[in-house]
Amino acid sequence: MTAGGERGRTAMRAAAKKDGAIRARLLTLLALLITAFATATPAARAASTSTDTQAAYLAAQLRTDPVYVTDQLPREIPQSTARDFAKVAQRTGVPTYVLVLPAQATTDVDLLDAVHDRLGKDGLYVLIDESTVSEAEAYGVQAPAEDAATVAFYELPYDAGPLRSFGRFADTVAQGAEKAAARAESAREKYNAGGEPADLYIGPSDREDQSTLTGMAITGVPLLMLLLVPYVRRWWRRRPGAAPRKQGTQSKQAKQAKGESKSPGRWILAALALGTAVAITLTAPLLFDQTRSSASPPPRAIDLNARLDRVAKGLAEDPVYADPESPRVLDTAQLAQLHDRVEKFGSSKGGGPVFVTLVPQIYEDESQGDEEAFTAAVRDKLGGKDGVYIVADPLDGYINVFNYGLALDTYSAFFDLPESISYGDSKSDEADDHLLGERLDDLMVILAKTARTDEPTTPGDPYPVTDPIAEDELRPLYYGEFWSGLFLGVLAALLFFGLAAAVLGIVRVLLRRRNPEPLPTSTLPHVSPAAPSLSYLRETATTEIRAMTTAFGTGETADARSLDRYEATMVLVDEASAAGGSGEDLDVLRPAALVAIIVLARATRAALADEDTTRCCGVNPLHGPAKSSRHVRVSPEGNRRKMLPLCDRCLNDTAPNDYPALLLTLPGPDDESQRTPYYEDDLLSAAPEGYTKLVRKVRESALSH
Q1: Beta bridge partners of 320
Q2: What percent of the chain shows pLDDT beyond 70?
Q3: Which residues fall within 8 angstroms of residue 298, CB to CB, at 6 or more apart?
Q4: Helix (H) or strand (E) run with residue 313 in it
Q5: Under the phi-then-psi rule, with left for phi > 0, alpha for psi from -120 to 50, and beta for the rest, what region is 70?
Q6: Cα–Cα distance, 623 to 599 (Å, whole number)
């Protein structure tokens, strides 16, 4: 063997050894990869491909149209609103791709990234759920996506609706980065400071409250006017300390004799109350003008059937239909296993078709999240095919089973399914795919073992769901609770009137403490001074005027006698007003006028009380009414006597020589110590002759001035 040959063989052996080492390393790496994949959980394998499948489908949809609206939310976002979203997207000023999907189907934080990678186009990508813009990302374009999303979230209430939210988002993007950032910061600060925007819509319970309130207002407000206005007017006129109010010169009897209306004010008040009721009835619908409880437009028939048609078409081609808009929950092996189980059950004795739908059940879908209603609608789309229909929700993991027309003991099998299959357990709750592959496999095992029956079983009609077209329409304002509100308005008016009367009663008591009642007539002869001061006369006159005004009231029950005395008193009060005073300020009146006011005010109250007194005590008119007449001494000097009417005290309890000391004297204009008998004053000279003469004297005195 030559040296060259030996070197060649040595080189070949070295090369073979090297290739063997490389192959060993490759085999070891391959074994590790196979082991890692084999030991990975089904949930992990599903999670690794769920986003890929979902994103690929959504990217394909955006490649056809830059705005994709799901068919799974027709009650909230009908597919027919895609054109509206497209118009709003044009306002951003940059290429915009919009995905409108259920919130639960978009929980993957990388969904927009995955969709962008598969679509391969730069632009503004926006993800919208049932209520608002939930996520936005800008790829290769200048757009303040995050700030715009913040503005849409904080500036609008929760019930503004996704279209209005997207509109606010698009307008903010169009403003540019600087303005969008400032606007987002301002909106965030306002919201955190308690400036949460008010709701734009009301619910059915709010409409019931509006109807009740309207009914209460229509009956309560007019009734309260009829009760409270006259009561307050009487209370105000008769309140303690009220200033005197001048009345008309005609008595009630005189007005009735002339055929005048008994109470025109009552008719005016009644007309105002009726007008108020009519005004409330007409204006309430303008104030409570809401007609819908949601921003969602009414769906059309094509919107409500879109998902059902899609699912039925898929089931006609494959007994297992997985919603492409949702994350993938079955890997290839699990899907193949499920198909195998379905095929075996279909060919088994007493078996039949099995239709599995991996479709979300959402409250905003056409079936209002009712699995039985969804299954019945899909079966109708399939021409009423009999079989076992399985609904597995890929978003929350719930599984429901319905048997239509197969001879299976479904009542004992399906109604008693383990909760771990129907609803899952803690382990499935933590898994991204809810372990639906394993649970569906267990379900098919139970289905295969279900006892056969002689007669097929079919569930009854599903419970009807809410009408999706009319569900957001508010009931008319004048409906339902409105009628009970009419009755409640009456009760509320009576209750408020009672409370108001109680409050006014308390106020009356407090005012009486500040404005004491006049002294009783029986005590006057014993407490009325013979030489009163000017301040005493003013205070007493003020008190008597208040008491007379309260007793006189509206004057409707006054006779001619009390009316004459009242008017004469008011003539003197008017003199005080003309001289710069008022009913509460009698400083401008002279002592004689003050005494006349006291005497006539007391006489007016006596006439209103049907007392037949006609004269006051001639010794001291402040003593009150006279009982009889007698000659008495009126001066301590000499033996001068006058025939004067006397009160009970002066008549029975006074000695003849004591009359001069009881005689009323008036203070002088400049010096109160210079006093003169009252009857020397021209005005009071008529007092001993009776109230009628005094009234006449007052009127003559007023005419002379």
Answers
A1: 356
A2: 86
A3: 468, 469, 470, 472
A4: helix 301-317
A5: beta
A6: 9
Cα(218)–Cα(278) distance, integer angstroms: 8
Q: What digits encode the pLDDT tens for the residues 437-456?
A: 999 999 999 999 998 988 88
Place of tokens 């009542």: 411
Tell me the torsion sign for CA atoms 607, 609, 611, 612: positive
Q: Which amino acid is at 236?
A: W
pLDDT band at 636 (very low <50, low <70, confident <90, very high): confident
Is 247 or 556 the better-scoring residue by pLDDT?
556
What does pTM read for this prediction?
0.66
The answer on pLDDT for 502 being more than 90 is yes
Q: Which two tokens stand for residue 151?
A: 């503005």
- The 10s digit of each residue's pLDDT in 432-442 is 899 999 999 99
pLDDT of the residue at 84: 97
3-state secondary structure of 52: helix
In this structure, the strands spanning 406-408 and 641-646 are unpaired
Amino acid letter, 181? A
Sheet containing strand 67-69, edge to edge, reads 67-69, 96-100, 123-128, 133-139
Q: How many CB atoms lie within 10 A of CB 167?
A: 21
Q: How far apart are CA 675 and CA 326, in angstroms?
A: 111
φ, ψ dihedrals at 354, nearest 5°: -125, 130
> CA 193 to CA 512: how far, in whole Å?
51
CA distance 608 to 556: 11
516-528 burial code (b ≥16 CB/10 A, e <16): eebbebeebbeeb
Q: 82 vs 86, 105, 294, CA distance in Å?
A: 6, 19, 18
Task: Give the amino acid at 179.
Answer: K
Helix (H, G, I), strand (E, B) or coil at 121: coil
